[in-house]
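Section: protein folds

Sequence with per-residue C-alpha coordinates
===
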Amino acid sequence: MAAHLSYGRVNLNILREAARKELREFLDKCAGSKAIVWDEYLTGPFGLIAQYSLLKEHEVEKMFTLKSGRLPSADVKNIIFFVRPRLELMDIIAENVFSEDKRHSSVDFHILFVPRRSMLCEQRLKEQGVLSSFINIDEYILDLIPYDGDLLSMEYESAFRECYLENDQTSLYHTAKGLMTLQALYGTIPQIYGKGECARHVANMMLRMKREFAGSQNQILPVFDTLLLLDRNVDLLTPLATQLTYEGLIDEIYGINNGYVKLPPEKFAQKKQGEASKDLPTEPKKLQLNSAEELYAEIRDKNFNAVGAALSKKAKIISAAFEERHNAKTVGEIKQFVSQLPHMQAARSSLANHTSVAELIKDITTSEAFFDNLTVEQEFMTGVDTDKVNTYIEDSISQKDPLIKILRLVCMQSVCNNGLRQKVFDFYKREILQTYGYEHILTLNNLEKAGLLKPQISSRNNYPTIRKTLKLWMEDANEQNPNDISYVYSGYAPLSIRLTQVLARPGWRSIEEVLKMLPGPHFEERQQLPAGLHKKRQQGENRTTLVFFLGGVTYAEIAALRFLSQMEDSGMEYIIATTKLINGTTWIKSLMDRPESQAP
Protein backbone atom coordinates (compact mmCIF):
# COMPACT_ATOMS: atom_id res chain seq x y z
CA MET A 1 0.00 0.00 0.00
CA ALA A 2 2.75 2.47 0.89
CA ALA A 3 5.51 1.23 -1.43
CA HIS A 4 6.22 4.81 -2.58
CA LEU A 5 7.50 5.59 0.95
CA SER A 6 10.39 3.19 0.53
CA TYR A 7 11.63 4.24 -2.93
CA GLY A 8 13.87 7.05 -1.69
CA ARG A 9 17.24 7.19 -0.04
CA VAL A 10 15.59 6.92 3.38
CA ASN A 11 12.94 4.23 3.82
CA LEU A 12 10.12 6.20 5.47
CA ASN A 13 7.99 3.07 5.59
CA ILE A 14 9.92 2.13 8.76
CA LEU A 15 8.36 5.17 10.46
CA ARG A 16 4.88 4.31 9.16
CA GLU A 17 5.21 0.70 10.31
CA ALA A 18 6.29 1.81 13.80
CA ALA A 19 3.17 4.01 14.00
CA ARG A 20 0.93 1.16 12.79
CA LYS A 21 2.39 -1.26 15.34
CA GLU A 22 1.62 1.13 18.18
CA LEU A 23 -1.93 1.62 16.93
CA ARG A 24 -2.51 -2.16 16.78
CA GLU A 25 -1.19 -2.55 20.33
CA PHE A 26 -3.59 0.08 21.64
CA LEU A 27 -6.59 -1.42 19.83
CA ASP A 28 -5.76 -4.84 21.25
CA LYS A 29 -5.86 -3.39 24.79
CA CYS A 30 -9.60 -2.89 24.29
CA ALA A 31 -10.84 -6.46 23.95
CA GLY A 32 -14.02 -7.06 21.98
CA SER A 33 -15.96 -5.11 19.33
CA LYS A 34 -15.16 -1.41 18.98
CA ALA A 35 -16.50 1.86 17.63
CA ILE A 36 -14.10 4.78 17.09
CA VAL A 37 -15.29 8.36 17.59
CA TRP A 38 -12.95 10.62 15.60
CA ASP A 39 -11.88 14.18 16.16
CA GLU A 40 -12.51 15.13 12.51
CA TYR A 41 -9.11 16.82 12.08
CA LEU A 42 -7.33 13.52 12.77
CA THR A 43 -9.04 11.39 10.12
CA GLY A 44 -6.84 12.73 7.29
CA PRO A 45 -3.45 12.19 8.99
CA PHE A 46 -4.55 8.77 10.32
CA GLY A 47 -5.59 7.74 6.81
CA LEU A 48 -1.93 7.98 5.82
CA ILE A 49 -0.92 5.57 8.59
CA ALA A 50 -3.75 3.01 8.60
CA GLN A 51 -6.60 2.24 6.24
CA TYR A 52 -9.95 1.00 7.47
CA SER A 53 -8.87 -2.59 6.72
CA LEU A 54 -6.27 -2.46 9.53
CA LEU A 55 -8.87 -1.16 11.99
CA LYS A 56 -11.33 -3.83 10.86
CA GLU A 57 -8.78 -6.58 11.58
CA HIS A 58 -8.78 -5.36 15.17
CA GLU A 59 -12.57 -5.53 15.59
CA VAL A 60 -13.41 -1.90 14.76
CA GLU A 61 -16.98 -2.17 13.51
CA LYS A 62 -18.18 1.43 13.39
CA MET A 63 -16.68 4.91 13.04
CA PHE A 64 -18.31 8.22 13.93
CA THR A 65 -17.29 11.87 13.84
CA LEU A 66 -17.07 13.55 17.23
CA LYS A 67 -20.00 15.96 17.63
CA SER A 68 -22.14 17.14 20.50
CA GLY A 69 -25.31 15.40 21.57
CA ARG A 70 -26.00 11.67 21.57
CA LEU A 71 -23.75 9.10 19.97
CA PRO A 72 -25.36 7.03 17.22
CA SER A 73 -26.25 3.57 18.56
CA ALA A 74 -23.30 1.30 18.01
CA ASP A 75 -24.01 -2.00 19.79
CA VAL A 76 -20.34 -2.60 20.58
CA LYS A 77 -18.33 -3.47 23.68
CA ASN A 78 -15.88 -0.50 23.44
CA ILE A 79 -16.17 3.12 22.39
CA ILE A 80 -12.80 4.77 21.76
CA PHE A 81 -12.40 8.54 21.37
CA PHE A 82 -9.44 9.54 19.16
CA VAL A 83 -8.88 13.25 19.93
CA ARG A 84 -6.40 16.09 20.04
CA PRO A 85 -5.84 17.44 23.56
CA ARG A 86 -8.27 20.39 23.28
CA LEU A 87 -10.51 21.56 26.09
CA GLU A 88 -13.53 22.27 23.87
CA LEU A 89 -13.45 18.63 22.66
CA MET A 90 -13.60 17.38 26.27
CA ASP A 91 -16.99 19.05 26.74
CA ILE A 92 -18.35 17.24 23.66
CA ILE A 93 -16.94 13.90 24.90
CA ALA A 94 -18.63 14.47 28.29
CA GLU A 95 -21.99 15.00 26.50
CA ASN A 96 -21.46 11.80 24.49
CA VAL A 97 -20.64 9.77 27.61
CA PHE A 98 -23.67 11.08 29.55
CA SER A 99 -26.00 10.30 26.65
CA GLU A 100 -24.61 6.76 26.48
CA ASP A 101 -25.01 6.29 30.27
CA LYS A 102 -28.67 7.27 29.98
CA ARG A 103 -29.14 4.37 27.60
CA HIS A 104 -27.83 2.13 30.41
CA SER A 105 -25.54 0.46 27.92
CA SER A 106 -22.71 -1.61 29.36
CA VAL A 107 -20.13 -0.10 27.05
CA ASP A 108 -16.48 0.54 28.02
CA PHE A 109 -15.07 3.99 27.20
CA HIS A 110 -11.46 4.66 26.21
CA ILE A 111 -9.72 7.83 25.15
CA LEU A 112 -6.62 8.17 23.00
CA PHE A 113 -4.94 11.59 22.96
CA VAL A 114 -2.98 12.45 19.81
CA PRO A 115 -0.09 13.30 20.03
CA ARG A 116 0.12 13.75 23.85
CA ARG A 117 -1.96 13.29 26.99
CA SER A 118 -2.96 16.51 28.70
CA MET A 119 -3.45 17.10 32.42
CA LEU A 120 -5.73 20.05 31.63
CA CYS A 121 -8.00 17.90 29.48
CA GLU A 122 -8.18 15.17 32.11
CA GLN A 123 -9.00 17.83 34.70
CA ARG A 124 -11.82 19.11 32.46
CA LEU A 125 -13.24 15.57 32.12
CA LYS A 126 -13.07 15.27 35.91
CA GLU A 127 -14.95 18.56 36.38
CA GLN A 128 -17.58 17.28 33.94
CA GLY A 129 -17.89 14.15 36.09
CA VAL A 130 -16.91 11.62 33.42
CA LEU A 131 -13.20 10.93 34.01
CA SER A 132 -13.95 7.76 36.00
CA SER A 133 -15.99 6.39 33.07
CA PHE A 134 -12.80 5.76 31.06
CA ILE A 135 -11.09 2.38 31.36
CA ASN A 136 -8.02 3.43 29.32
CA ILE A 137 -6.62 6.93 28.98
CA ASP A 138 -3.63 6.81 26.70
CA GLU A 139 -1.58 8.84 24.24
CA TYR A 140 -0.71 7.99 20.66
CA ILE A 141 2.48 9.75 19.67
CA LEU A 142 1.88 10.65 16.05
CA ASP A 143 4.42 13.43 15.54
CA LEU A 144 5.86 13.00 12.07
CA ILE A 145 3.59 11.51 9.40
CA PRO A 146 5.14 10.22 6.15
CA TYR A 147 3.42 12.01 3.25
CA ASP A 148 5.74 10.80 0.53
CA GLY A 149 9.09 9.12 -0.04
CA ASP A 150 10.96 12.29 0.97
CA LEU A 151 8.37 14.24 2.93
CA LEU A 152 7.24 14.21 6.58
CA SER A 153 4.73 16.55 8.20
CA MET A 154 3.36 16.91 11.71
CA GLU A 155 0.22 18.64 10.34
CA TYR A 156 0.25 20.86 13.40
CA GLU A 157 -1.90 23.65 11.97
CA SER A 158 -1.36 26.25 14.69
CA ALA A 159 2.44 25.88 15.12
CA PHE A 160 3.41 29.24 13.55
CA ARG A 161 0.64 31.10 15.36
CA GLU A 162 1.51 29.54 18.72
CA CYS A 163 5.23 30.32 18.39
CA TYR A 164 4.97 33.90 17.13
CA LEU A 165 1.70 35.22 18.54
CA GLU A 166 1.07 33.27 21.71
CA ASN A 167 4.63 32.56 22.79
CA ASP A 168 3.60 28.92 23.24
CA GLN A 169 6.36 26.40 22.58
CA THR A 170 4.26 23.22 22.66
CA SER A 171 4.80 22.59 18.94
CA LEU A 172 8.56 22.88 19.43
CA TYR A 173 8.46 20.23 22.16
CA HIS A 174 6.50 17.93 19.80
CA THR A 175 9.08 18.63 17.07
CA ALA A 176 11.97 17.71 19.38
CA LYS A 177 10.12 14.52 20.43
CA GLY A 178 9.43 13.67 16.78
CA LEU A 179 13.10 14.09 15.94
CA MET A 180 14.06 11.82 18.85
CA THR A 181 11.67 9.15 17.49
CA LEU A 182 13.29 9.57 14.09
CA GLN A 183 16.77 9.13 15.59
CA ALA A 184 15.60 6.01 17.46
CA LEU A 185 14.62 4.49 14.09
CA TYR A 186 17.31 5.91 11.79
CA GLY A 187 20.31 6.54 14.07
CA THR A 188 21.78 9.65 15.69
CA ILE A 189 22.17 12.65 13.34
CA PRO A 190 25.82 13.72 13.77
CA GLN A 191 25.53 17.37 12.67
CA ILE A 192 22.82 19.88 13.51
CA TYR A 193 22.65 23.35 11.94
CA GLY A 194 19.94 25.89 12.60
CA LYS A 195 18.75 29.42 12.00
CA GLY A 196 16.15 31.19 14.15
CA GLU A 197 14.90 31.32 17.74
CA CYS A 198 12.60 28.30 17.39
CA ALA A 199 15.37 26.28 15.75
CA ARG A 200 17.61 27.07 18.73
CA HIS A 201 14.89 25.91 21.19
CA VAL A 202 14.32 22.64 19.31
CA ALA A 203 18.05 21.88 19.16
CA ASN A 204 18.41 22.60 22.89
CA MET A 205 15.49 20.31 23.75
CA MET A 206 16.87 17.53 21.55
CA LEU A 207 20.31 17.73 23.16
CA ARG A 208 18.74 17.72 26.61
CA MET A 209 16.56 14.70 25.77
CA LYS A 210 19.62 12.91 24.40
CA ARG A 211 21.50 13.51 27.68
CA GLU A 212 18.52 12.22 29.69
CA PHE A 213 18.40 9.00 27.64
CA ALA A 214 22.16 8.67 27.42
CA GLY A 215 22.05 5.05 28.61
CA SER A 216 19.60 3.85 25.97
CA GLN A 217 21.49 4.79 22.83
CA ASN A 218 20.67 2.65 19.84
CA GLN A 219 23.41 1.01 17.82
CA ILE A 220 22.11 2.06 14.41
CA LEU A 221 24.38 3.36 11.68
CA PRO A 222 23.11 6.91 11.03
CA VAL A 223 21.04 7.35 7.87
CA PHE A 224 21.07 11.18 8.03
CA ASP A 225 24.36 13.09 7.95
CA THR A 226 22.92 16.49 8.80
CA LEU A 227 19.81 18.09 10.28
CA LEU A 228 19.01 21.66 9.28
CA LEU A 229 16.39 23.43 11.42
CA LEU A 230 14.90 26.54 9.79
CA ASP A 231 12.45 28.98 11.35
CA ARG A 232 9.64 30.07 9.05
CA ASN A 233 10.13 33.68 10.16
CA VAL A 234 13.68 33.67 8.74
CA ASP A 235 11.96 33.68 5.36
CA LEU A 236 8.52 35.31 5.55
CA LEU A 237 8.51 36.20 1.87
CA THR A 238 8.37 32.78 0.19
CA PRO A 239 4.94 31.55 1.42
CA LEU A 240 3.35 34.88 0.43
CA ALA A 241 4.37 34.47 -3.23
CA THR A 242 2.14 32.53 -5.65
CA GLN A 243 3.70 29.10 -6.24
CA LEU A 244 4.18 28.35 -9.93
CA THR A 245 4.88 24.61 -9.91
CA TYR A 246 2.12 22.18 -10.91
CA GLU A 247 1.67 20.86 -7.36
CA GLY A 248 2.02 24.35 -5.88
CA LEU A 249 -0.73 25.73 -8.12
CA ILE A 250 -3.07 22.82 -7.32
CA ASP A 251 -2.58 23.72 -3.66
CA GLU A 252 -2.95 27.49 -4.22
CA ILE A 253 -6.19 27.12 -6.20
CA TYR A 254 -7.91 24.03 -4.75
CA GLY A 255 -6.02 23.15 -1.56
CA ILE A 256 -4.31 19.78 -0.98
CA ASN A 257 -5.33 18.11 2.28
CA ASN A 258 -3.53 15.03 3.57
CA GLY A 259 -2.44 14.07 0.07
CA TYR A 260 -5.88 14.55 -1.55
CA VAL A 261 -7.40 17.32 -3.63
CA LYS A 262 -11.10 17.93 -4.37
CA LEU A 263 -11.78 19.34 -7.83
CA PRO A 264 -14.83 20.63 -9.73
CA PRO A 265 -16.37 17.52 -11.33
CA GLU A 266 -17.41 18.92 -14.73
CA LYS A 267 -14.02 18.40 -16.39
CA PHE A 268 -13.93 14.76 -15.32
CA ALA A 269 -17.38 13.73 -16.56
CA GLN A 270 -17.27 10.92 -19.13
CA LYS A 271 -19.62 12.38 -21.74
CA LYS A 272 -21.17 9.84 -24.03
CA GLN A 273 -22.44 10.81 -27.48
CA GLY A 274 -25.87 12.37 -27.46
CA GLU A 275 -26.05 12.32 -23.66
CA ALA A 276 -27.88 15.19 -21.99
CA SER A 277 -25.52 17.36 -19.96
CA LYS A 278 -27.99 17.69 -17.09
CA ASP A 279 -26.67 14.42 -15.61
CA LEU A 280 -23.24 15.86 -14.89
CA PRO A 281 -21.80 14.76 -11.54
CA THR A 282 -22.23 17.16 -8.64
CA GLU A 283 -19.82 15.51 -6.19
CA PRO A 284 -16.28 16.96 -6.33
CA LYS A 285 -13.69 14.73 -7.96
CA LYS A 286 -11.26 13.52 -5.28
CA LEU A 287 -7.74 12.69 -6.45
CA GLN A 288 -4.89 11.25 -4.41
CA LEU A 289 -1.59 13.00 -5.09
CA ASN A 290 1.71 11.28 -4.36
CA SER A 291 4.71 9.74 -6.09
CA ALA A 292 3.06 6.30 -6.24
CA GLU A 293 1.48 7.66 -9.43
CA GLU A 294 4.21 7.64 -12.06
CA LEU A 295 2.98 10.60 -14.11
CA TYR A 296 2.35 12.81 -11.07
CA ALA A 297 5.85 12.08 -9.73
CA GLU A 298 7.18 13.22 -13.11
CA ILE A 299 5.26 16.52 -13.43
CA ARG A 300 4.45 17.66 -9.87
CA ASP A 301 7.61 19.77 -9.43
CA LYS A 302 7.74 21.26 -12.93
CA ASN A 303 6.97 24.91 -13.52
CA PHE A 304 3.37 24.95 -14.79
CA ASN A 305 4.51 26.34 -18.15
CA ALA A 306 6.43 23.10 -18.76
CA VAL A 307 3.53 20.77 -17.84
CA GLY A 308 1.64 20.97 -21.15
CA ALA A 309 4.64 19.73 -23.16
CA ALA A 310 5.26 16.90 -20.65
CA LEU A 311 1.62 15.76 -20.89
CA SER A 312 1.55 15.72 -24.69
CA LYS A 313 4.84 13.77 -24.78
CA LYS A 314 3.30 11.24 -22.37
CA ALA A 315 0.15 11.01 -24.52
CA LYS A 316 2.26 10.07 -27.57
CA ILE A 317 4.11 7.36 -25.61
CA ILE A 318 0.84 5.88 -24.30
CA SER A 319 -0.92 5.82 -27.68
CA ALA A 320 2.19 4.24 -29.25
CA ALA A 321 2.08 1.54 -26.54
CA PHE A 322 -1.59 0.80 -27.35
CA GLU A 323 -0.78 0.66 -31.08
CA GLU A 324 1.66 -2.17 -30.30
CA ARG A 325 -1.32 -4.54 -30.10
CA HIS A 326 -1.50 -4.58 -33.91
CA ASN A 327 2.05 -5.92 -34.01
CA ALA A 328 1.40 -8.75 -31.57
CA LYS A 329 1.21 -11.81 -33.81
CA THR A 330 2.30 -14.85 -31.81
CA VAL A 331 0.55 -16.15 -28.68
CA GLY A 332 3.61 -15.14 -26.62
CA GLU A 333 3.48 -11.57 -27.92
CA ILE A 334 -0.27 -11.31 -27.32
CA LYS A 335 0.19 -12.68 -23.81
CA GLN A 336 2.91 -10.12 -23.12
CA PHE A 337 0.70 -7.30 -24.41
CA VAL A 338 -2.22 -8.44 -22.23
CA SER A 339 0.03 -8.58 -19.14
CA GLN A 340 0.98 -4.92 -19.71
CA LEU A 341 -2.61 -3.79 -20.23
CA PRO A 342 -3.49 -2.93 -16.59
CA HIS A 343 -0.42 -0.71 -16.30
CA MET A 344 -1.17 0.96 -19.64
CA GLN A 345 -4.82 1.55 -18.73
CA ALA A 346 -3.78 3.07 -15.38
CA ALA A 347 -1.34 5.33 -17.23
CA ARG A 348 -4.09 6.40 -19.67
CA SER A 349 -6.53 7.22 -16.88
CA SER A 350 -3.79 9.09 -14.96
CA LEU A 351 -3.04 11.12 -18.11
CA ALA A 352 -6.74 11.93 -18.58
CA ASN A 353 -7.01 13.13 -14.97
CA HIS A 354 -3.92 15.33 -15.08
CA THR A 355 -4.87 16.77 -18.46
CA SER A 356 -8.19 17.82 -16.89
CA VAL A 357 -6.45 19.27 -13.82
CA ALA A 358 -4.01 21.18 -16.05
CA GLU A 359 -6.94 22.61 -18.06
CA LEU A 360 -8.63 23.79 -14.86
CA ILE A 361 -5.42 25.49 -13.72
CA LYS A 362 -4.73 26.98 -17.16
CA ASP A 363 -8.14 28.69 -17.13
CA ILE A 364 -6.95 30.57 -14.07
CA THR A 365 -3.27 31.18 -14.91
CA THR A 366 -4.12 32.64 -18.32
CA SER A 367 -6.61 35.12 -16.82
CA GLU A 368 -5.80 38.82 -16.65
CA ALA A 369 -6.42 38.87 -12.89
CA PHE A 370 -3.78 36.17 -12.26
CA PHE A 371 -1.25 37.94 -14.47
CA ASP A 372 -1.79 41.36 -12.84
CA ASN A 373 -1.43 39.88 -9.37
CA LEU A 374 1.77 38.04 -10.35
CA THR A 375 3.23 41.19 -11.93
CA VAL A 376 2.81 43.11 -8.66
CA GLU A 377 4.38 40.25 -6.67
CA GLN A 378 7.39 40.19 -8.98
CA GLU A 379 7.78 43.98 -8.79
CA PHE A 380 7.92 43.76 -4.99
CA MET A 381 10.42 40.88 -5.10
CA THR A 382 12.70 42.90 -7.36
CA GLY A 383 12.37 45.99 -5.19
CA VAL A 384 10.25 48.16 -7.51
CA ASP A 385 8.28 50.90 -5.72
CA THR A 386 8.00 49.05 -2.42
CA ASP A 387 7.99 52.28 -0.40
CA LYS A 388 4.76 53.82 -1.69
CA VAL A 389 1.07 52.90 -1.91
CA ASN A 390 0.59 50.39 -4.72
CA THR A 391 -2.22 51.36 -7.11
CA TYR A 392 -3.10 47.73 -7.90
CA ILE A 393 -3.60 46.98 -4.18
CA GLU A 394 -5.60 50.21 -3.80
CA ASP A 395 -7.87 49.26 -6.74
CA SER A 396 -8.25 45.68 -5.47
CA ILE A 397 -9.44 47.00 -2.10
CA SER A 398 -11.92 49.37 -3.71
CA GLN A 399 -13.28 46.44 -5.79
CA LYS A 400 -13.57 44.44 -2.58
CA ASP A 401 -11.38 41.59 -3.81
CA PRO A 402 -10.94 38.70 -1.32
CA LEU A 403 -9.31 40.01 1.88
CA ILE A 404 -6.69 37.22 1.92
CA LYS A 405 -5.44 38.30 -1.52
CA ILE A 406 -5.04 41.88 -0.22
CA LEU A 407 -3.28 40.75 2.97
CA ARG A 408 -0.83 38.54 1.05
CA LEU A 409 0.17 41.45 -1.20
CA VAL A 410 0.39 44.06 1.56
CA CYS A 411 2.47 41.69 3.72
CA MET A 412 4.73 40.96 0.76
CA GLN A 413 5.30 44.67 0.17
CA SER A 414 6.08 45.12 3.88
CA VAL A 415 8.55 42.20 3.96
CA CYS A 416 10.36 43.38 0.79
CA ASN A 417 10.68 46.90 2.23
CA ASN A 418 11.65 45.95 5.80
CA GLY A 419 8.34 47.45 6.95
CA LEU A 420 6.12 50.07 5.30
CA ARG A 421 6.58 53.80 5.67
CA GLN A 422 4.20 55.00 8.41
CA LYS A 423 2.06 56.95 5.91
CA VAL A 424 1.70 53.89 3.63
CA PHE A 425 1.08 51.57 6.59
CA ASP A 426 -1.69 53.82 7.97
CA PHE A 427 -3.30 54.17 4.53
CA TYR A 428 -3.54 50.38 3.96
CA LYS A 429 -4.77 49.80 7.48
CA ARG A 430 -7.50 52.43 7.18
CA GLU A 431 -8.63 51.23 3.72
CA ILE A 432 -8.77 47.56 4.82
CA LEU A 433 -10.77 48.32 7.99
CA GLN A 434 -13.21 50.64 6.22
CA THR A 435 -13.80 48.20 3.36
CA TYR A 436 -13.78 44.81 5.09
CA GLY A 437 -14.92 45.74 8.60
CA TYR A 438 -13.31 46.97 11.82
CA GLU A 439 -13.29 43.46 13.33
CA HIS A 440 -10.19 42.81 11.20
CA ILE A 441 -8.11 45.08 13.42
CA LEU A 442 -7.28 41.94 15.43
CA THR A 443 -5.95 40.22 12.31
CA LEU A 444 -3.85 43.27 11.37
CA ASN A 445 -2.40 43.32 14.88
CA ASN A 446 -1.56 39.61 14.59
CA LEU A 447 0.20 40.15 11.27
CA GLU A 448 2.16 43.01 12.82
CA LYS A 449 3.16 40.89 15.82
CA ALA A 450 4.31 38.08 13.50
CA GLY A 451 6.50 40.56 11.60
CA LEU A 452 4.55 40.25 8.35
CA LEU A 453 2.96 43.69 8.22
CA LYS A 454 4.67 46.44 10.16
CA PRO A 455 5.65 50.09 10.04
CA GLN A 456 9.27 50.79 9.14
CA ILE A 457 11.29 51.49 12.26
CA SER A 458 14.70 52.17 10.74
CA SER A 459 15.15 53.62 7.29
CA ARG A 460 17.64 50.86 6.47
CA ASN A 461 16.16 48.17 4.23
CA ASN A 462 18.30 45.02 4.21
CA TYR A 463 16.21 43.17 1.66
CA PRO A 464 18.10 44.44 -1.46
CA THR A 465 21.42 43.35 0.11
CA ILE A 466 19.99 39.92 0.98
CA ARG A 467 18.49 39.62 -2.51
CA LYS A 468 21.77 40.44 -4.26
CA THR A 469 24.05 38.40 -2.00
CA LEU A 470 21.92 35.26 -2.14
CA LYS A 471 20.86 35.80 -5.80
CA LEU A 472 17.18 35.64 -4.87
CA TRP A 473 16.10 37.07 -8.21
CA MET A 474 17.29 35.45 -11.43
CA GLU A 475 16.37 37.15 -14.68
CA ASP A 476 15.32 34.78 -17.48
CA ALA A 477 14.72 31.75 -15.26
CA ASN A 478 14.52 28.68 -17.49
CA GLU A 479 11.09 27.17 -16.84
CA GLN A 480 11.33 24.31 -19.34
CA ASN A 481 14.80 22.95 -18.49
CA PRO A 482 15.69 24.58 -15.19
CA ASN A 483 19.28 25.07 -14.09
CA ASP A 484 18.46 26.88 -10.84
CA ILE A 485 15.85 26.65 -8.08
CA SER A 486 14.36 30.02 -9.10
CA TYR A 487 12.21 28.21 -11.71
CA VAL A 488 9.65 27.32 -8.98
CA TYR A 489 8.55 30.98 -8.79
CA SER A 490 9.58 31.93 -12.38
CA GLY A 491 12.51 34.08 -11.26
CA TYR A 492 12.45 34.17 -7.46
CA ALA A 493 14.68 31.68 -5.64
CA PRO A 494 13.17 30.89 -2.21
CA LEU A 495 15.40 32.38 0.51
CA SER A 496 14.95 29.30 2.73
CA ILE A 497 16.25 27.01 -0.03
CA ARG A 498 19.15 29.33 -0.93
CA LEU A 499 20.25 29.08 2.73
CA THR A 500 20.05 25.28 2.47
CA GLN A 501 22.00 25.32 -0.81
CA VAL A 502 24.76 27.57 0.55
CA LEU A 503 25.07 25.50 3.73
CA ALA A 504 25.91 22.43 1.59
CA ARG A 505 28.44 24.37 -0.44
CA PRO A 506 30.45 26.52 0.28
CA GLY A 507 29.06 26.75 3.87
CA TRP A 508 27.42 29.47 5.94
CA ARG A 509 30.69 31.20 6.80
CA SER A 510 30.63 32.66 3.30
CA ILE A 511 27.34 34.52 4.03
CA GLU A 512 27.93 35.48 7.68
CA GLU A 513 26.87 39.10 7.06
CA VAL A 514 23.53 38.13 5.50
CA LEU A 515 22.79 35.62 8.27
CA LYS A 516 23.17 38.44 10.80
CA MET A 517 20.56 40.48 8.91
CA LEU A 518 18.02 37.66 9.19
CA PRO A 519 16.12 37.14 12.46
CA GLY A 520 17.35 34.78 15.19
CA PRO A 521 20.69 33.10 15.90
CA HIS A 522 22.47 30.66 13.59
CA PHE A 523 24.35 27.78 15.14
CA GLU A 524 26.02 24.42 14.68
CA GLU A 525 25.99 21.45 17.06
CA ARG A 526 27.60 18.03 16.88
CA GLN A 527 26.13 14.89 18.37
CA GLN A 528 28.47 12.16 19.52
CA LEU A 529 27.80 8.85 17.79
CA PRO A 530 27.81 5.65 19.88
CA ALA A 531 31.29 4.10 20.03
CA GLY A 532 32.30 2.20 16.92
CA LEU A 533 29.54 3.69 14.77
CA HIS A 534 31.32 5.78 12.21
CA LYS A 535 29.88 6.08 8.79
CA LYS A 536 32.35 5.24 6.04
CA ARG A 537 31.22 6.97 2.89
CA GLN A 538 31.48 5.07 -0.37
CA GLN A 539 33.12 6.78 -3.32
CA GLY A 540 30.55 9.10 -4.92
CA GLU A 541 27.90 8.41 -2.27
CA ASN A 542 25.62 11.38 -1.58
CA ARG A 543 25.23 12.91 1.85
CA THR A 544 21.67 13.01 3.27
CA THR A 545 20.29 16.13 4.94
CA LEU A 546 16.98 16.40 6.77
CA VAL A 547 15.64 19.95 6.38
CA PHE A 548 13.03 20.75 9.04
CA PHE A 549 10.84 23.83 8.52
CA LEU A 550 9.43 25.09 11.83
CA GLY A 551 6.18 26.92 11.07
CA GLY A 552 5.39 25.44 7.67
CA VAL A 553 6.71 24.78 4.17
CA THR A 554 5.21 25.28 0.70
CA TYR A 555 5.11 22.76 -2.16
CA ALA A 556 7.28 25.11 -4.26
CA GLU A 557 10.03 24.99 -1.62
CA ILE A 558 9.74 21.19 -1.57
CA ALA A 559 10.08 21.18 -5.39
CA ALA A 560 13.21 23.35 -5.13
CA LEU A 561 14.79 20.92 -2.63
CA ARG A 562 13.94 17.96 -4.88
CA PHE A 563 15.59 19.84 -7.74
CA LEU A 564 18.76 20.23 -5.63
CA SER A 565 18.68 16.50 -4.78
CA GLN A 566 18.58 15.65 -8.49
CA MET A 567 21.38 17.99 -9.52
CA GLU A 568 24.32 15.95 -10.76
CA ASP A 569 26.98 17.81 -8.82
CA SER A 570 25.10 18.59 -5.60
CA GLY A 571 26.36 15.49 -3.79
CA MET A 572 23.43 15.97 -1.43
CA GLU A 573 20.05 14.34 -1.02
CA TYR A 574 17.31 16.14 0.90
CA ILE A 575 14.49 14.77 3.00
CA ILE A 576 11.92 17.41 4.01
CA ALA A 577 10.08 17.65 7.33
CA THR A 578 7.74 20.35 8.60
CA THR A 579 5.21 21.26 11.26
CA LYS A 580 2.63 21.87 8.48
CA LEU A 581 2.30 21.94 4.69
CA ILE A 582 1.16 25.49 3.93
CA ASN A 583 0.45 28.01 1.19
CA GLY A 584 0.04 31.79 1.52
CA THR A 585 -3.71 31.53 2.02
CA THR A 586 -3.77 28.83 4.71
CA TRP A 587 -0.84 30.55 6.45
CA ILE A 588 -2.51 33.98 6.60
CA LYS A 589 -5.80 32.29 7.62
CA SER A 590 -4.07 30.68 10.59
CA LEU A 591 -3.15 34.20 11.79
CA MET A 592 -6.60 35.70 11.31
CA ASP A 593 -8.89 36.44 14.24
CA ARG A 594 -12.60 36.80 14.18
CA PRO A 595 -14.03 38.28 17.35
CA GLU A 596 -17.22 36.20 17.17
CA SER A 597 -15.30 32.93 16.84
CA GLN A 598 -11.64 32.38 17.58
CA ALA A 599 -9.27 31.80 14.69
CA PRO A 600 -9.45 28.49 12.83
Remarks:
- DSSP finds 23 helices and 15 strands in the chain.
- The chain has a mean pLDDT of 91.
- The domain at 143-235+462-531+539-599 is CATH 3.40.50.1910 (Rossmann fold).
